[in-house]
Amino acid sequence: MELPPRQDSLKWSAYPEDVLPLWVADMDFPVAEPVRRAIRERAEGFLGYPPREGDPELKALLLEGVGLEGEVAFMPGVVVGLYAAVAAFTAPGQGVLTQVPVYPPFLAAIREQRRTLLANPLRETEEGYRLDLPGLERLAFATRLLLFCHPQNPTGRVFTEEELEGVAAIARKHDLIVVSDELHAPLTYERPHVPLARFLPERTLTLLGPGKAYNLAGLPIGAVVGPKPLVEALKRHLPHTFPNVLAMAAWKAALREGGPWLKATLERLKANRDRVAAWAKEVGLGHFPPEGTYLAWLKTPIPKAAAYLLREARVALNPGETFGEGYDRHVRLNFATYPEVLEEALRRLQGALSQSR
């Protein structure tokens, strides 16, 4: 079992050595060999400025991989795209619509740029979390922009075609621009990911990146795909930087040759997902096994649950309150680690939960 060196890893160095880190979303597994080889080969070659528009072969691979058409622009990462979208398509004081709970940078991009959050909570049903389409429509009149997350972080929902068609119909009816973060798209289990833009090509900007599926968070890069006028509007609010040449080489190798590694990694993740789901049922936590991502969203009976579990179990999880108001009894657990690490973390968590009752 080869874990990242603590000094080189945010995940493993942010807390004292006695804490098991199951928080920030990267994997403990080594990167695919074709990706490592591509980085080595690129590093031995030209490392000067690339063309500002980026690698045309990578653009073609991205469009082919997601089955979409449109303009492609590179950016330093998907989070940068969220901030740029809020700046490009809304003004201070205006509303921005999104589902909660949601990845914290969605909320930060709205709050820090002095926009108003229009929160449309996911509905918790017996079958799992579902989009509240009537609620979405009630809020749609008050905004021009919907920030969408699919597969959804932190719940792991992979939305159905019926749900996506519903979102598209509402967006079209109310002239919304939709920015869809599909960073976790390759990480699905039983049901494949379908891009929202298939149903709303004229109004959707799709954000993509290799950081999650291919464990390349330390080589930040992202891309936006969509209609040229919307992409050009977004680009005016992106940093004036060049695409990272090593990141482009790594992403291209991942798309061309990373399939076997990704398939094997998904098998490991699925086993961990099922283990967490069985454990959550055993200890009585609210949980729906994620359909995508390597993140488990757990509902506990404890207020400020993440702080309590860090203190009492020495396991670092993401606090639910950072994903939206009213979720402080929830935590997000990253299960993209080795079984031995996961088992020890679950053992500690179970002990701390037992003490709280």
From TrEMBL:
<dbReference type="Pfam" id="PF00155">
    <property type="entry name" value="Aminotran_1_2"/>
</dbReference>
<dbReference type="InterPro" id="IPR015424">
    <property type="entry name" value="PyrdxlP-dep_Trfase"/>
</dbReference>
<dbReference type="InterPro" id="IPR004839">
    <property type="entry name" value="Aminotransferase_I/II_large"/>
</dbReference>
<dbReference type="InterPro" id="IPR051798">
    <property type="entry name" value="Class-II_PLP-Dep_Aminotrans"/>
</dbReference>
<keyword id="KW-0663">Pyridoxal phosphate</keyword>
<feature type="domain" description="Aminotransferase class I/classII large">
    <location>
        <begin position="18"/>
        <end position="349"/>
    </location>
</feature>
<dbReference type="GO" id="GO:0030170">
    <property type="term" value="F:pyridoxal phosphate binding"/>
</dbReference>
<keyword id="KW-0456">Lyase</keyword>
<dbReference type="GO" id="GO:0047804">
    <property type="term" value="F:cysteine-S-conjugate beta-lyase activity"/>
</dbReference>
<dbReference type="InterPro" id="IPR015421">
    <property type="entry name" value="PyrdxlP-dep_Trfase_major"/>
</dbReference>
<comment type="similarity">
    <text>Belongs to the class-II pyridoxal-phosphate-dependent aminotransferase family. MalY/PatB cystathionine beta-lyase subfamily.</text>
</comment>
<protein>
    <recommendedName>
        <fullName>cysteine-S-conjugate beta-lyase</fullName>
        <ecNumber>4.4.1.13</ecNumber>
    </recommendedName>
</protein>
<dbReference type="InterPro" id="IPR015422">
    <property type="entry name" value="PyrdxlP-dep_Trfase_small"/>
</dbReference>
